[in-house]
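B., you asked whether I could sanity-check this one before it goes into the benchmark set. Here's the sequence:
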Amino acid sequence: MYPVYNKFYYKPLPDCVEVKKSPIEGFGLFAVDNIDEEFDLGMSHIKVPIIQGYVRTSIGGFLNHSEDSNCYLSEQLDWDDYRVYNVITSKKISIGEELTLNYHLDGLNYGKKETK
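And here's what the prediction gave me:
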């Protein structure tokens, strides 16, 4: 018997992407369906104050860097020093295309002390 679909069950990757060997580095996320512009792929990074850094989900862990990226991060939640970011496509992505993020423009401060 299969479980009944529930949108609150955790799903590490949306159905439209898969993890494959990447020509950029290691493994990456690749489209298995055409993906529209401004499509929300889901949660990728969570800023956790207790560890003074970010936790990456499966989506965030497999996004490779590109200066000509096709995704960006959007802050979805800002609550008491916790921040949740989702990956949004910045253009239409074709089947077989790797999803990428420009690490220099994503707005995250990876382990560096924040200045105010």
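One thing to flag: Residues 17-101 form a domain with the Beta-clip-like fold (CATH 2.170.270.10). Otherwise nothing jumped out at me.
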